[in-house]
Write a structure and sequence with these properties.
This protein has 420 residues and is mainly alpha-helical. The protein has 16 helices and no strands. The longest helix has 38 residues, at 41-78.
Amino acid sequence: MPDPFDSILYKYVYCTLSSTDDVVCVGSGLFGGGLLPGGLEWLAYVLTAVTIVAVLINAILGGVLMMIWGERRLLGRFQGRTGPNRWGPFGLLTPIADAVKTMFKEDVMPTVSDRLVFTAAPILMLFPALLIYAVLPFGAGTWLADINVALLFIIAIGGANVLAIVAAALGSGNRYAMFSAMRSVAMLISYEIPLVISLIGVLMLSGSLSLVAIVNAQTLPFFIVQPLGFFVFLVASMAELNRTPFDVAEAESEIVAGYMTDYSSMKFGLFFLSEFAATIATSGVITAVFLGGWHGFDPIPSQIWFIGKMVAVLAVIVWIRASWPRLRIDQIMNFAWKALFELTLINLVVSGILVLIWPSPSTTELWYMAGINWVVFLASIYIFGKVLGSKHDPVKAGNIQPDVTLSDSDAPALPTGGGD
């Protein structure tokens, strides 16, 4: 069982509050420690947990505000415009203005809604996103909890948002919301399967489900050793997050705002907060599992390395949003079952063979594994791109006729003469 004193956050706060004579706390607390009288170690334990959780939640809220601002600024650059620039320097206060505006909007509830379910749905959506942060290692010795099944915990918690989506649709009593919920549930379940299988290669290499152990096992970042697993996990994560091009739950031309259609004020704001908090958490998971976590070069602190890698992942997610149009639901489902699922099976077989050859690979052997996996990755992407591209091209499939270019002699004559 991991020792809580392995976390410098727990050690620093607890040793500041407690009057314990534990050798671990000697010289570790602020003001020499012992702010509470002796015999109140239990209170120090409770206050330590409350303090760390409060700091973490406020940091998440601040991170969400920064991501909203950063995404809007990046989208502005991608689309040849400025982005938010009115409130505060470089528009930094724009997310705060939006949050205040959302809080003071009228809270409307449909008369046919189930009030309890309708109100509980945004809360059910937010809690799983926050719980993921509990096991994320933000740096060397910087985590809330290091459990030996952290990756399994994240997968289980991440699947709970299906319940929130269905609750939102059922609670609102709206048929369009129900269409969106069923579409979302089908997509989430379909993409969760390749997402989970894509992690098996990482587990073979690290031999642990603990995120801390996985980070420590990356003498070579696993996105180099497992490119196919990294690709599948990134794409499946974007589908799970309902991010472009997989955001069919909010296809405005078909189902308005999806399962959030009837929500307003802070209930809608909680859905919005949940989506961005989950996106940041997912970028943290990708950083820990595939990008080497907090590993970097001295003298830059490990926490800065981790946050910098998270920001890079978020920038890629925004880049994809700016570059790709929304896919149809049939295209999304075909991609999950006819491409990603098969790619994960290929990665699983190849990774199993390589781990069988090199059970405890050195850094040199990891480079050998990376070379083989990159060849498999490029070949697989090329083959599946050719097969699926030709199969789902309506012109090549004969479903529609290609455009016919008219010659000058076939072109209709333009009308002549004046007119009003």
